[in-house]
Automatic annotation (TrEMBL):
InterPro entries: MazG-like_dom, MazG-related_YpjD, YpjD/YvdC. It comes from the Bacteria. CDD domains: NTP-PPase_BsYpjD. This is MazG nucleotide pyrophosphohydrolase domain protein. It comes from Enterococcus aquimarinus. The lineage of its organism: Bacteria, Bacillati, Bacillota, Bacilli, Lactobacillales. Residues 27-106 form the NTP pyrophosphohydrolase MazG-like domain.
Length: 117
């Protein structure tokens, strides 16, 4: 059986449903930024252990890049919800920006350049 793909809107709603069960609700933007920063640091550490030269100590618990990236994603959704930002709209706007700005920024597989347009 194929799992259903969640949309960003569904993920934002699921996170909001989770947060709404607690009296504290959403933390302040600065506290949320600190949490995202902490999670990005943990992701960086895991990437370093997985792909870099620094191996984990035998006493350190195993972890994964995917797990840490998931923590960054969840905390990003939490911050977006707290600030009432629709991540689907933001994604679409940013992809349009990247498509325009970076269309020829990197060498293309098809070999086309800006001058050939």
């Amino acid at each position: 059986m194929q799992e259903e793909q969640q949309t960003l809107a569904a993920m934002q709603q699921e996170v909001d449903d989770y947060i709404q069960q607690f009296k504290a609700g959403y933390f302040s933007p600065l506290a949320l930024m600190a949490r995202i920063t902490e999670e990005v640091g943990e992701l960086a550490r895991e990437v370093n252990h997985t792909y870099g030269e620094k191996q984990k100590k035998a006493t350190e618990a195993p972890n994964s890049v995917a797990e840490e990236l998931g923590d960054v994603l969840i905390n990003t959704i939490i911050m977006a919800n707290a600030l009432e930002i629709d991540l689907t709209s933001v994604f679409e706007q940013n992809m349009t920006k990247f498509q325009r700005r970076d269309h020829y920024r990197f060498e293309r597989i098809d070999g086309r350049t800006k001058d050939e347009e």
